[in-house]
Amino acid sequence: MHRPKPRLLIVGFGMAAGRLLQEISLQAPGLFDTSVIGEESQSAYNRILLSPLLAGESDASLLPLHSASWYRSQDIAVHTGDPVIALDTDSRVASTASGACHKWDMLVLATGSRAARLPLPGVDLSGIVSLRTLDDAEAVMARIGSTGQADDDRVRRAVVVGGGVLGLEAACALQNRGVTTTVVHNAGWPMNRQLDSEAGEYLAATLAARNIRFISDAQCKRFVATADGQSVAGLQLGDGELLACELVIMAVGIAPEVSLARQTNLSVARAINVDAWLRSSQHGVFALGECCEIDGEQFGLVAPIYQQAQVLAKVLQRCAESGPDASLTDVEPYTRQSLPTRLKVSGVHVFSAGTLDETGHQTSPSQRSLAWRDKNAGEYRRLWWQGDCLQAAVMFGDVDDSGIYESLIENRAPVQASPQALLNPAGLVPQ
């Protein structure tokens, strides 16, 4: 008797789901009766390209992870623009906003995250947006218009709240489109979670050279409305300064989207609790990406999520073949990664790897550091050691050697070269 294929339902259709489908097609082609449901009207696309798209340096046609014909060739049932609003884990049924019901044998939650918003007076005014989805990016592009558009119809001034990676990418994109842009940040320098203070100074100077005003240690007080009370006209800071603007982009972090999981009996902390094989607290239910956490670790970068997709594809295959209690002893689990940060802005080269504390300094008194700088060229790098091992590296300007540092930090191997030689292979004298 022919055994029916197990029904695999993936809820959420972002980069995590797109990568998982690709891994399944490689590891277990034809094994599942697969359906994927997305809230957005588009199938999975590359969110990393949203800032270049906003800057006019990329094209929307480059965003999709797979073509419609690819999904058809893999017999994947795609449902977009119809979000799941309820899960019944006892009956194993997902209900969508349109009233459709989808049954599953195995469920993967890949619901991602939502952009965080500061709870300030006026935050719901028109013109205050996030840059999280393609719809967000297209809405911003519609507001800023084109350089040939009449000034009265274009956003001329914008404020970006948040001086992390996404905020700076958005600010540079807006400035590139001819919008006068100010960045307000609640720390002493941009990218303070990834850079030490000196690298932050170099980055702030680069922003200023691009006519982007950067306000450090800023406290946002309230958003000011236009005369009709409908749209944003400015942001008032805690010191009383009013930043006039017609557009505000919030870039203050993300929050895992776990509202569906909280409706069920799944274990949820800030995100969905899963083990290193992406299994939730209930048989047959899995989660990956920004909506999950493993031993308290949460995820916002592509590399660990793609590793999770590879692990989960193998786990799903094993469970389909041997049942939900299948042994996974020979399946490599997800392992924590030390990931570098790079700023994706044309002409600005920033690299950071390893761990610095929240003040941008070494995390242990036993660490030592060495720096090299060329202020005229706008180049800087600093390395941190503990014993013979490289712990962290920050680079600004010339980042060609970043792969060396990344490998040494990740492998935690003793460094054979002298600190001076490793710091500056060109032989320049560190200062």
Task: Walk me through the structure.
- Pfam families: Pyr_redox_2, Rubredoxin_C.
- Keywords: FAD, Flavoprotein.
- InterPro entries: FAD-bd_OxRdtase, FAD/NAD-bd_sf, FAD/NAD-binding_dom, FAD/NAD-linked_Rdtase_dimer_sf, Rubredoxin_C.
- Its cofactor is FAD.
- It is a single chain.
- This protein is α/β, with parallel strands linked by helices.
- It folds into three domains: 177 residues, FAD/NAD(P)-binding domain (3-Layer(bba) Sandwich); 123 residues, FAD/NAD(P)-binding domain, CATH 3.50.50.60; 75 residues, Enolase-like, domain 1, CATH 3.30.390.
- The chain has ten helices and 26 strands.
- The chain has a five-stranded parallel beta sheet. It has a five-stranded parallel beta sheet with strand order 9-16-10-11-12.
- The longest helix is centred in the C-terminal third of the chain and has 21 residues.
- The C terminus is likely disordered.
